[in-house]
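Issue 218. Parser rejects a valid record. Input:
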Amino acid sequence: MADPQLTHLDAEGRVRMVDVGDKAVTTRTATAEGVFRTRPEVVTMVDGDALGKADVLATARLAGIGAAKKTSELIPLCHQIPLNSVKVHFDLDADAGEIRVSATAKTTGKTGVEMEALTAVSVAGLTLHDMVKAVDPLATMDGVRLAAKTGGKRGNWTRDIDDHDNNDDDNAQTGRPAGPAVIDQGRTGVVVVSSTAASRGEREDSTGPAIRSWLLGRGFDPVEVHVVADADIEVALTEQVRRSPAVLLTTGGTGVAPDDRTPEATAPHLTLALPGVAEAMRARGIAATPTAALSRGLAGFSGRTLVANLPGSTGGVRNGLEVLDDLLDHLLDVHANGGGH
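Output the parser choked on:
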């Protein structure tokens, strides 16, 4: 495969507008997403239209749609394209203090609508900030990113870190061709491996792939694996928690060595601790090896994200997953998705 190129630069490195005249006319869509983070009571006020301004969500939706229509005026090298539709959606989670913003743009033409979808999400988030800043000036709009696209030379694409490739449109992204370009936000997973040796390439990690395979087998997709040094676990966990996957599993760093800091990095993020789950995983491990009693792993929810610390050994991971196997869907249904008992 040829190395990816910056399509907005010519052979001499000068900025140019990509010529799309020879591209096929196809129906193209793009979906972008982001998370607006504020305090739980502010989300409740937005939901109840209690901020004393115009309807907050309706205003932000109109702003996002209007911004998508003006993308070529805001982003210098974007083409002017006819939009078939722009849809902006909000998913409110008062407990987590979050409003998930997503936008899907659709066109029939020679170039994609990724930037239109991203612009819609960005401006919708800015409008939310403008509407709530009087009660929470510390609110943030995080994680704005492309989630999926359809159409064009390479067809359907969804976000997945395992096989990066270039998209064919004039607004280059990375990812891989996939099936239907639909992001099921209820079944996403992230695995964080805390291992200094593995992060340096000094040894091959097997626990991350094992956990990823386990999650994929239970219908989670995409599932990302991140290997970090022990000293970087706090930053890594903070970043991944803010992305709000359905499940966030860690492996490693749960013991008593000076650089084992995964529980300390996890604790501040838990809005609902599940000590019984952590104890069950520990007990399952002790049945196999007494040293499992030294594991200090935690489990709980961070907003809607189920977080669990697994040991760094393959046996410890296997024991922990055996416990979660009986509980995972029930936990997500009852707590994260609001299902009944």
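Fixed in the parser; the record now loads. The chain has a mean pLDDT of 83.
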